[in-house]
Amino acid sequence: MLLNKRIIVGICGGIASYKAVELVSRLQQAGALVDVIMTEHAEDFVRPLTFATMSHRPVYSDLWEASGRAAELHIGLAEEGELLAIVPATANTIAKLAYGMADNMLTAVALATRAPLLLAPAMYRDMYTHPATQANLTLLRERGAYIVEPEVGRLASGAVGPGRLPETTVLLGVINMLLGRNGDLVGRRVVVTAGGTREPIDPVRYVGNRSSGKMGYALAIEARDRGANVVLISGPVALEAPYGVELQTVETAQQMRDGVFSAISNADVLVMSAAVADFRPAVPAAQKLKKDSGGSGENGEGPEFDERGGFSLYLVRNPDILGELADAPGEQTGNDKLRRHVIRVGFAAETNDLISNARGKLAKKQLDLLVANDVSRTDSGFGTDTNKVFIFHATGAIEDLPVMPKADVAATIWDRIVPLLSKTYGGRKRYGDGSFYS
After folding, report:
1. Is 241 part of a structural domain of the chain?
2. Which of 37, 61, 202, 221 is deepest in the core (most CB within 10 A)?
3. Along the 438 residues of the chain, how does pLDDT read in single tens digits?
């Protein structure tokens, strides 16, 4: 997404400027062409050589240098930049931008560019909450600037409150999201499920699986970066919530089923990458089970101990979410057009007979695409950062993809979904309320 993107990073004179070093480095590593502009006082915190080393490009700061070349350069930067991110944005620079001042290299480029403007305010809490700063930010928002709210925490002064610069992962998420505003999923609403489900045995124990959620989160992030409005329905995972994505957390298969049926009423795409448990304990115990307690469950369906100290569970089937969508009439889904208009993509984690099992699932659940992988491999499946998948198409075609990072697998899957959207809607896009536009 960032490859060859022209990004201007403005650095203001605040203690948080040192955090921008990692941001510039990460952008450069991702393939972006990063031009850094520093204000005079930013150089008191971090030397320009540091940013030049991280960006592999010159650093700009003095609009009034003797040769006059900077005056020409600032126009070129303004015209070529695809995004201007000011990180950190101080109260002083925010005020200058609000009133259209151009008294240094950074503010001159900001006034001259038509690229999206991203501001990440970072300052002492009372400076941030001051009515003047808030009024300036409101004015800039009204003009189209995107403001990343500072985090609440301990500040350099020792005080606690709003004013901390967000972490680099958050800033990268915002940058990718803004650069995707003209992507091939703009105007689309997509629902992605991720992670595994936990089916309670008692208040402490559960039946679960090994899903990490990495594939589903990669799919949600990729859709966001292509301009989609993304709902991510996630089981319990150890992953950060992606910026700019509507995250709904669930635990059980029934909760995931309810979340999916609620979210897809106006959706264009459903990608079911979650590893939903097929079975659940019929009657979870109300209290924590003790291994020496003995006894049997209610009506023979609850957890039960035997005379040898063994323990058994009676399991019942969980709802089959994709199966219900294939079979349910409109009145059950709440949307009479659901089956015809929502592109549905399923996942199959297999350990044997992958091809035949995947084909059967694709046909039975009437999917548009099915992504299958062999989770017994060490480089694919649960917990890994890479995946080796096959993509099965409703047309009968099968794609055998090489081992790739999960982010690349996600990009490939969306590459296959986008043409299906054009066919489904005759080339039209749809607003969140279900109405179409050309």
Report:
1. yes
2. 37
3. 789 999 999 999 999 999 999 999 999 999 999 999 999 999 999 999 999 999 999 999 888 766 667 677 888 899 999 999 999 999 999 999 999 999 999 999 999 999 999 999 999 999 999 999 999 999 999 999 999 999 988 888 788 888 899 999 999 999 999 999 889 999 999 999 999 999 999 899 999 988 999 999 999 999 999 999 999 999 999 999 999 999 999 999 999 999 999 999 889 999 999 999 999 999 988 888 877 665 555 555 667 777 666 778 889 999 999 999 887 544 444 444 444 479 999 999 888 889 999 999 999 999 999 999 988 888 887 888 999 999 999 999 999 999 999 999 999 999 999 999 987 544 444 433 444 433
Count of other CB atoms within 10 angstroms of residue 255: 16
- Classify strands 160-164 and 151-154 as parallel, antiparallel or unpaired: antiparallel
Is 231 inside any structural domain? yes
270 and 209 belong to one structural domain: yes
Do 227 and 370 lie in one domain? The reply is: yes
The pTM (predicted TM-score) of the whole model is 0.88
